[in-house]
What does this fold into?
Amino acid sequence: MDSQLTLDLYRTMVLIRTFEEAILREYHADKKPVFDIGAGQIPGEMHLAAGQEPVAAGVCAHLTTDDAVTATHRPHHFAIAHGVDLRRMAAEIFGRVDGLGRGRGGHMHLFDPGTHFSCSGIIAEGYPPALGQALAFRRRGTDRIAVAVTGEGAANQGAFHESLNLAALWKLPVVFIVEDNDWGISVPRSVSTCVTSNADRAAGYDMPGERVEDNSVEAVYEAAGRAVERARAGLGPSLIEVHTLRLWGHFEGDAQGYRSDLEGVPGRDPIPTYEAALRRGGVLDDIGVKNAQEAARQRVEDAIAFARQSAEPDPASALDHVFA
Amino acid sequence: MTLTDATTPTRPSRRRLSTSKAMVEGIAQEMERDPDVFVLGEDVGAYGGIFSSTTGLLDRFGPERVLDTPISETAFIGMAVGAAVEGMRPIVELMFADFFGVCMDQIYNHMAKIHFESGGNVRVPMVLTTAVGGGYSDGAQHSQCLWGTFAHLPGMKVVVPSTPADAKGLMISAIRDDNPVVYMFHKGIMGLPWMAKNPRSVEPVPEESYEVPIGKANVVRPGSDVTIVTLSLSVHHALDVADELAGDGVDCEVIDLRSIVPLDTGTILESVGRTGRLVVVDEDYLSFGLSGEVIARVAESDPAMLRAPAARVAVPDLPIPYARSLEYAVLPTADRIRRAVLRTVGT
It folds into this structure.
């Protein structure tokens, strides 16, 4: 694989991780000594995507901001990889007026019309709107596509199956991504899902299905390339399941007492793994790593500072934006 | 052109249309005008909509703009949401409002909330059409009105036409609106040849394009003794009762709400302020719904406005029964409306 491309994939993953670590830090900074989910500068549920960077980096490397992405309740990695502005995203997570949704949405409801990015807090329900975006793109005679993302738990939802059927039936330019992080909150996929690979379900909808087993960004990139090319060519949707990793809890505050695989998790972190591979290939050295980390740190800390200085929404504006 | 009162079009029309044909004409004129308008749903193509809400559109505009969907309401209503987000103006049909249970997440968590969650940065200009109402023994899962349920959830406008002219004008307004609009048409107002129809379901409709403003009620019959606030098919029952009681010296004012989100509180208060008496007629369920809301708005404004206790004629909190005798015992029939009015005026 082209070394510039591999470096880009690596840098995207580092940027995502740096952002998630900063949100983690800011989220917990004023929730000590007693954790109160509604307290502090970032209140509410917080679902961080550390460990799942390869999926977002590998898929979004094929997209431009003219393409659409619909993500999940765990959306930051896809937002960043797709090019959503870090400052306005951070400000929205902080619930501030300069946020993407002027503080009305929060971290599960990030909408950026400039990059056609959105996410939904409801499992599998980001799939249907992606179909409509794809339909609109096709009607306008473009080769733009929509990427719809869910977790493996969503593959047991009706919206997932309805969407696969309709997208295949109408050969819509959609790429369906399933992030299999093994856990639906506390329920392992072996307890929830009758097939070992959700990619097998693609056959039921007459579309290509592929499972990427090892959370490798390059493998995701290759699989996504095939699916994106097919969609842009007007040949219809594809389904890709990536066996990825939930490095942290379902949400912050989740003690993960249910998690039998916890001990082995740090050793499966995809970023050190990829970094080592790039070092072995001579693409990356100490300076390259430091530069990537420093560049990411600067961008992320700039975004956090922007969010912090942004004002809280005026309570007098609470009723704004219900209707256009 | 804007019709603020559907009974007085700027150019009188002698041409009479059924409500369903008027509704289709509104859609067709907007499809002619705006290439981003398209229709999707179950049986909207060759069948023309089970309740004739899309008759002829497929022949006229072709399968690229009139799309029969699989029976997958979550997928195709969500698809309409996504298309609207990208600037198209879909009209998506939920065949019966009763079916909302299989797709409500796309309606109330996505269609209705995206604009707000985006801080006003994303618009969702779409129309969700759906058939409502009973009276023909279709049982508990195909006879409900449910507009109070939709109106309770913020972020979507809710329009409920009762006449052919309003059906067309409200449709055109709904399509042009930058917000999601739920357009709920009662099967009994459509003028269908295979279902008993009220005599006002075929009426003059202007041929040109016009809007009936969303959020503006219509005083369809002025009166001085009692205000009947109602909507949809019940408007016609109320008018029948008003005609009948006029002979007995009871002068009823009948207000057709036409929209319940936004609710035209001003017109209600102005009327009740004059009559001092209020009867709300609503084919939706009685409790926690539109009838209570209308009375609450009066009470919040000025409880002394009412010279007699307000009355409600609604479905008394039970599933719609199948047997004709039972169904008509709970629907807001003319007989029930008459009794409520007479009780309210104290005769």
